[in-house]
Amino acid sequence: MARFDVYPNPSSSAVTTPYLLDVQSDLFNGLDTRMVIPLRTQSAFAKVKLPERLMPIFTIKGKKLVLETSKMASVPTRILKQPVATLQDQQSTVVVALDFLFNGY
């Protein structure tokens, strides 16, 4: 498992939240859980003005998805199967969203 890998969401919410972004440091690969952030379809937010620093938009497999940073959660490692993409090249945007959530800047 690698930080910033994108995994299919195995839950019933996958219709609107198809992916989970792994944001946990690779230093903790031995744990049986990973911290992930849901990636939700942009259309689910059609009538809402999003705080872009907190909830940036990424395109994965042709879909525009919103990083729901404030819904970050720990999930069992076993539910994360094969990654379908990586946001490694967008690392700074993800870290800015996390900093904004925790520090307000």
Which structural class is indicated by helix and strand composition?
A: alpha+beta
Helix content estimate = 10-25%
Order of helices and strands: EEEEEEEH
Strand content: 25-35%
Q: Overall mean pLDDT score? A: 96
Secondary structure layout plus pairing:
Blueprint: E1 5-8, E2 19-22, E3 33-41, E4 57-60, E5 63-67, E6 73-76, E7 85-86, H1 91-103
Antiparallel strand pairs: 1-2, 1-7, 2-3, 3-5, 3-6, 4-5
Q: How would you characterize this protein structure?
A:
The chain is an alpha+beta fold and about 100 residues long. It has a single domain (about 5-105), classed as SH3 type barrels. About 10% of the residues lie in helices and about 30% in strands. The protein contains 1 helix and 7 strands; from the N terminus they run E-E-E-E-E-E-E-H. The protein has one helix at about 90-105, and strands at about 5-10, 20, 35-40, 55-60, 65, 75, 85. Strands 1, 2, 3, 4, 5, 6 and 7 form a 7-stranded antiparallel sheet that branches. A hairpin with a 2-residue loop joins strand 4 and strand 5. The longest helix has 13 residues, at about 90-105. It is globular, with a radius of gyration of 13 Å. The model has no long low-confidence stretch (mean pLDDT about 95).
